[in-house]
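$ run holo --ligand "zinc ion" --emit tokens
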Amino acid sequence: MTDNTVPREHVRAGVVECPLCGRQIAEPTDHLRVFGPACDPTAGTADAVECPVCDGVSFLKPRPDG
Ligand SMILES: [Zn+2]
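-- output --
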């Protein structure tokens, strides 16, 4: 299993590099994914970010609280 994770602080900073294809995700907050009841994922609540280049989903570390 590939360890495709992205540091959450990078999402907060708005600078995320896709660990799958190595491309920088220009607007990471536009590509956040959440696997739960939350409907408005933010850098603090999202579970993952989807790469617009390779469509790969990378999980944010650390996981969201609660
Ligand atoms: Zn990618």
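-- notes --
The CA atoms of residues 4 and 19 lie 6 Å apart.
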